[in-house]
């Protein structure tokens, strides 16, 4: 039971939610010079519950569709295979997804009651996206590309900032957009090994529609744009000069872009670059968070 729940929750991937909330906390400290410990913890619970819910729904629906039997498993794609080991426990995975979604709804409504119903403009789309991502969004290349970034950037990160600061400044939008590009890229690259399997169950994402090589160019384009957004934000003083610290991540980003373009069709050799992409998705926002704390000293 415990192994099942841990497996479908995908704990190794939950660190991304921690990074999003850490970035929100750092901006709150930079803009208001205060740390709201209890509220930050509550926001973290909502973020983790949302992430666990979408993971568990994904595991459940991929098992039910038969996709789990078709995918090539890597540390970063293809699902965990947990329900292949416990096929009679699929309902428990669905229950975990539903319970954590109810936690998101309950705490989200409480936060909206405390801080203003305007938060529902972020909360309601977030709840809908959690449920429909696996079943419906994956059937549209554009939505499939945008949804992960919107979920973690424009909903999770922006929502956390809104709760912790009470406003959405140019700084907040900049950070959310950068996270959005990074996370959309994260899911885009992770789709490369699953092209043949995803095609069999009716999914349509860019690696299927355009091919891996063309999708690799989209990947590099989004990566470049994320750094251009950072430079623009510093130039416009939406972010402090200290935020150029995040440009240090251009070093792994360069090797990542080069590797993805070269190995897009060579899946065994692509896996290390998928790992590097995961690392970049953590290091880039964390560098921004550190820069904001540094600027506030």
Automatic annotation (TrEMBL):
<dbReference type="GO" id="GO:0042371">
    <property type="term" value="P:vitamin K biosynthetic process"/>
</dbReference>
<comment type="pathway">
    <text>Quinol/quinone metabolism; menaquinone biosynthesis.</text>
</comment>
<feature type="transmembrane region" description="Helical">
    <location>
        <begin position="119"/>
        <end position="136"/>
    </location>
</feature>
<dbReference type="Pfam" id="PF01040">
    <property type="entry name" value="UbiA"/>
</dbReference>
<dbReference type="GO" id="GO:0009234">
    <property type="term" value="P:menaquinone biosynthetic process"/>
</dbReference>
<feature type="transmembrane region" description="Helical">
    <location>
        <begin position="241"/>
        <end position="261"/>
    </location>
</feature>
<keyword id="KW-0474">Menaquinone biosynthesis</keyword>
<feature type="transmembrane region" description="Helical">
    <location>
        <begin position="171"/>
        <end position="193"/>
    </location>
</feature>
<keyword id="KW-0472">Membrane</keyword>
<dbReference type="InterPro" id="IPR000537">
    <property type="entry name" value="UbiA_prenyltransferase"/>
</dbReference>
<protein>
    <submittedName>
        <fullName>1,4-dihydroxy-2-naphthoate octaprenyltransferase</fullName>
    </submittedName>
</protein>
<feature type="transmembrane region" description="Helical">
    <location>
        <begin position="273"/>
        <end position="295"/>
    </location>
</feature>
<keyword id="KW-0808">Transferase</keyword>
<keyword id="KW-0812">Transmembrane</keyword>
<feature type="transmembrane region" description="Helical">
    <location>
        <begin position="36"/>
        <end position="57"/>
    </location>
</feature>
<dbReference type="GO" id="GO:0004659">
    <property type="term" value="F:prenyltransferase activity"/>
</dbReference>
<keyword id="KW-1003">Cell membrane</keyword>
<feature type="transmembrane region" description="Helical">
    <location>
        <begin position="214"/>
        <end position="235"/>
    </location>
</feature>
<feature type="transmembrane region" description="Helical">
    <location>
        <begin position="93"/>
        <end position="113"/>
    </location>
</feature>
<feature type="transmembrane region" description="Helical">
    <location>
        <begin position="12"/>
        <end position="30"/>
    </location>
</feature>
<dbReference type="InterPro" id="IPR044878">
    <property type="entry name" value="UbiA_sf"/>
</dbReference>
<keyword id="KW-1133">Transmembrane helix</keyword>
<dbReference type="InterPro" id="IPR026046">
    <property type="entry name" value="UBIAD1"/>
</dbReference>
<feature type="transmembrane region" description="Helical">
    <location>
        <begin position="143"/>
        <end position="165"/>
    </location>
</feature>
<dbReference type="GO" id="GO:0016020">
    <property type="term" value="C:membrane"/>
</dbReference>
